[in-house]
């Protein structure tokens, strides 16, 4: 292992430069040493939504508008809106002067080149021998890279202004003469960096010949972060977020009852990612876990707190629930067909093909003799497309949809008698109807499907029964 850490800063934190500088850069994890750290930065909050599409609502950004019609009067105003928003950020960070002009020039150059690429591609694909669909994945990656290039360039130069020997590390491949793998790009970019006296600020997007977004989509920055940590043999990986990884959402269960999690393992992180509450993308976590690199999740705005340490080998001292988490706005899509009995595999494969076509995230699913239900974290627009495709594929089936919430009790070790019974009893006492329930033999989580209006009551009742104690609000472990 090396002597350094690799640290990722999320978009919300990036939007507060003063806190990043004072709470992260000037308060290093290694005492009295500002260096021996690598920073991987996300785009400023909301910028990737504007460049691609809104992550939660699906509202079209520049890419989505270009992909839909490609007429300049559709996507060009959205690109100008991005330019205006990014320049506003520059003007809030840099005082009038040479450095602001350099920041604006760098940004305008990237955006102008992107605009020219889109215009040229539109003209090219008007010719019958060229298909736009073959190039959309590349367009998506190009546009996404602008957000991270913007924030990384700004941060590196602001830190230089403030007395730090920071260096901008551009992994976007913007003017790269050749394609290379992700690992090759990272190794090439860092070969001249001296971590003992330089502080690299790297783009969260990294271009590779296979394309990061085709596999990781919006989780690409976490994969870049993970591979840098693995390839440079960091002793610890750190993610800086705007909140603690806590036993539940403090806004629901109360500030005094929610407990920051001190230790957990990558299994728990995977369960959180499945619910859309990512500590880290599961495939990025896999590299860290296999390389024996621990992950620490810290709150940018409470720099003196040690945060949550995630390792591969941690198991709680006794079986317990560590976190109550969940997600609202889940769509339960149920397909019933009498012909399914005895032939479930054929139906299952065909349904999954439809869901994969629309990149629908599956949180959980139920199967019985003649019914398959998938619980999907998708927006309404995608749901309508999924339902239309399913009705076309299964014209004789009864297909229904229902908006629900999923609440999960998660722990590194929950193998004890009676825990599931305690959970169900706690929910029932609040007059909440459990629509479905899941627990695998691995016993690291229990999932409860409830009506969306019962989400908060379910979170609070499970947290009170399985986590809270009244002496100092510390998490309890339920021994059998």
TrEMBL record:
Residues 5-299 form the Aspartate/glutamate/uridylate kinase domain. Residues 407-466 form the Aspartokinase ACT domain. The keyword Membrane does not apply. Its EC number is 2.7.2.4. SUPFAM superfamilies: ACT-like, Carbamate kinase-like. GO terms for molecular function: aspartate kinase activity; ATP binding. One of its GO terms (cellular component) is cytosol. It holds the Pfam family ACT_9. GO terms for biological process: homoserine biosynthetic process; lysine biosynthetic process via diaminopimelate. InterPro entries: AceGlu_kinase-like_sf, ACT-like_dom_sf, ACT_Aspartokinase, AK-Ectoine, Asp/Glu/Uridylate_kinase. It catalyses: L-aspartate + ATP = 4-phospho-L-aspartate + ADP. It comes from the Bacteria. Keywords: ATP-binding, Kinase, Nucleotide-binding, Transferase. Belongs to the aspartokinase family. This is aspartate kinase. It comes from Marinomonas primoryensis.
């Amino acid at each position: 292992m090396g002597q350094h850490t690799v640290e990722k800063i999320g978009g919300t934190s990036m939007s507060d430069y003063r806190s990043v500088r004072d709470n992260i850069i000037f308060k290093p994890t290694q005492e009295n040493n500002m260096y021996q750290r690598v920073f991987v930065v996300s785009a400023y909050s909301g910028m990737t939504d504007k460049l691609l599409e809104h992550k939660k609502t699906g509202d079209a950004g520049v890419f989505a508008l270009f992909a839909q019609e490609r007429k300049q009067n559709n996507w060009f105003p959205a690109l100008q809106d991005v330019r205006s928003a990014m320049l506003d950020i520059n003007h809030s960070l840099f005082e009038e002067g040479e450095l602001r002009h350099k920041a604006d020039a760098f940004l305008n150059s990237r955006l102008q080149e992107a605009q020219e690429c889109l215009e040229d591609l539109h003209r090219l694909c008007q010719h019958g021998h060229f298909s736009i669909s073959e190039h959309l994945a590349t367009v998506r990656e190009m546009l996404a890279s602008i957000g991270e290039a913007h924030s990384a360039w700004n941060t590196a130069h602001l830190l230089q202004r403030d007395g730090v020997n920071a260096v901008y590390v551009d992994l976007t491949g913007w003017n790269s003469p050749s394609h290379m793998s992700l690992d090759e790009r990272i190794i090439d970019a860092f070969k001249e960096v001296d971590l003992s006296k330089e502080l690299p600020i790297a783009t969260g997007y990294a271009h590779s010949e296979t394309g990061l977004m085709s596999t990781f989509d919006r989780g690409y920055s976490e994969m870049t972060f993970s591979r840098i940590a693995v390839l440079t043999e960091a002793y610890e990986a750190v993610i800086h977020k705007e909140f603690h990884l806590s036993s539940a959402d403090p806004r629901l269960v109360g500030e005094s009852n929610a407990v920051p999690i001190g230790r957990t393992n990558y299994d728990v992180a995977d369960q959180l990612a499945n619910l859309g509450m990512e500590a880290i993308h599961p495939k990025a976590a896999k590299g860290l876990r296999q390389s024996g690199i621990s992950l620490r999740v810290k709150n940018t705005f409470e720099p003196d707190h040690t945060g949550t340490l995630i390792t591969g080998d941690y198991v709680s001292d006794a079986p317990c629930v560590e976190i109550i988490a969940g997600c609202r706005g889940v769509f339960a899509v149920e397909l019933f067909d009498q012909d399914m009995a005895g032939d479930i595999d054929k139906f299952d494969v065909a349904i999954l093909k439809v869901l994969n076509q629309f990149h629908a995230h599956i949180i959980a699913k139920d199967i019985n003799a003649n019914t398959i239900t998938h619980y999907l974290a998708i927006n309404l627009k995608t749901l309508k497309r999924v339902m239309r495709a399913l009705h076309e594929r299964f014209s004789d089936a009864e297909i229904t949809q229902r908006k629900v919430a999923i609440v999960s009790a998660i722990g590194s070790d929950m193998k004890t008698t009676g825990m599931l019974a305690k959970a169900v009893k706690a929910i029932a006492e609040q007059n909440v109807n459990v629509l479905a329930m899941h627990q695998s033999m691995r016993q690291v989580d229990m999932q409860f499907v409830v009506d969306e209006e019962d989400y908060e009551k379910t979170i609070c009742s499970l947290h009170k029964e399985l986590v809270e104690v009244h002496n100092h609000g510390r998490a309890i472990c339920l021994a059998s």
